[in-house]
Amino acid sequence: MSRQTTMDAETATSQPDGLPENARRLAIFSLAIGVAMASLDTAIANVALPAIATQLHTTPASSVWIINVYQLAMVATLLPFAALGEIISYRRVLIFGLFLFTLASLACALAWSLPSLVIARLLQGIGASAVMGVNTAMLKAIYPTRMLGRGYGTNALVVAVAFAIGPTMSSLILSVASWSWLFAINVPLGLVALFLGRKVLPDTRRATHKFDGLTALYNIVAFSFLILLFGDAAHQEKFTTLAMELAGTALFFALLIHRQAGHKAPMLPIDLLRRPMFALSVVTSVCTFAAQGLAFVALPFYFFVTLGKSPVEAGFLLTPWAVMVAIMAPIAGRLSDHYSPGALGGVGLSILALGLVALVLMPDDPSTLNIGWRMGMSGIGFGFFQAPNLKGFMGSAPPTRAGSASGMVATSRLVGQATGAALVAYCFMLSSEHGATFALWGAVAFATIASIASFARVVAVRT
């Protein structure tokens, strides 16, 4: 056994193996509320943009910053918060994230102008990032080792369902109240999560190295440039703009890698990416969430434009995906406690790819049942992937680097979703009539690549 493996094993055995059952239930409830709020607010404001723009007397183009600033704040700060969690404990970072998110949600609800709302959304995104950056690592402290798969299944269920029902929930709230209630509803939920979290969330062993503020700054700027580049490239911005953003991305990633060279726990975990299982988990996650991003943005247009469904029907037809994810995620989580995460994820992603192919190849005038079973099949595949992928992610990192692994879980998900959304915009630039179909074929391609990468993890474990 290598020296590093010995150290990992000693660290793992020196900490309590999960919480007692009653405390565990309360802790996971607190964590689930935080994760659900952060996931919902990634998409929940999209539906309200026209109403917000009208009430705040701003243009639709300017109002898009309400969405963009939240996503930028999340992606840019995930890894710094994950690194900070390893040093000061995941519990402290999570409590801070819940507090800031709740306070910023109140500020969003009380915003009186576009600048005030954008600033509040920026703070809300930072709070969400603190929650999402360490939530997977916290699961390892909440659940005993033998039940980790179940914990990952619950987490996957919360993230997937929250992301899927976000637009529908937003529409329901807007049908009976103003847009400010989209944010105000987070306040009581956040207070409950904070109260429970302070009581039952476990403290975790802290690393001995110090937090590097300059490395965090390089990370924030690098990922901000990257997300801006994705969005502007999809909308075919001027070459000079794209060139500047590409140069900024390359420069700050180079500075980041140089700054953390030789560090025993780098913020951008290059050391973990040298582990085949971890690297393949990153590839699997990015490609899968790119496929999901492509599908969830393109499908409403596909139902509305290509199949001639009404907006209400289009929203209803997305439901089987979310329902099947809710059913399959806990099942896959339990199975991942006994079977290879790579094999389970590969099977799920193969089903997802086949479901997406079936959607693209539907007859010209499909019945609701014809569409429903295809959406359900895609949901089964996606739900079967998530928990095993989390198990593969976290299992391929040593216990002392659980924060870095947790940060990469969230970062790979958001980068994948941002990539998918940007590619949908590009597909519609290519063809307004067939853009949705092009995007769905792109989703098929990403799901297929993800399936291959997941199956490759079986070989990586054996070797």
Automatic annotation (TrEMBL):
**Which compartments is it annotated to reside in?**
Membrane
**What keywords tag this UniProt record?**
Membrane, Transmembrane, Transmembrane helix, Transport
The segment(s) forming the Major facilitator superfamily (MFS) profile domain are 27-463
- Which organism is this entry from? Pseudomonas moorei
Q: Report the domain of life of the source organism.
A: Bacteria
The lineage is: Bacteria, Pseudomonadati, Pseudomonadota, Gammaproteobacteria, Pseudomonadales
Q: Which GO terms describe its molecular function?
A: transmembrane transporter activity
Q: Which Pfam families match?
A: MFS_1
Predominantly, its location class is membrane
Give the bilayer topology. Answer: Multi-pass membrane protein
Q: Can the keyword Transcription be found in this entry's annotation?
A: no
Spans traversing the lipid bilayer: 26-53, 65-84, 93-112, 118-139, 151-173, 179-196, 216-233, 239-257, 278-303, 315-335, 342-361, 438-460
Q: Which SUPFAM superfamilies match?
A: MFS general substrate transporter
- Provide the protein name: MFS transporter, DHA2 family, multidrug resistance protein
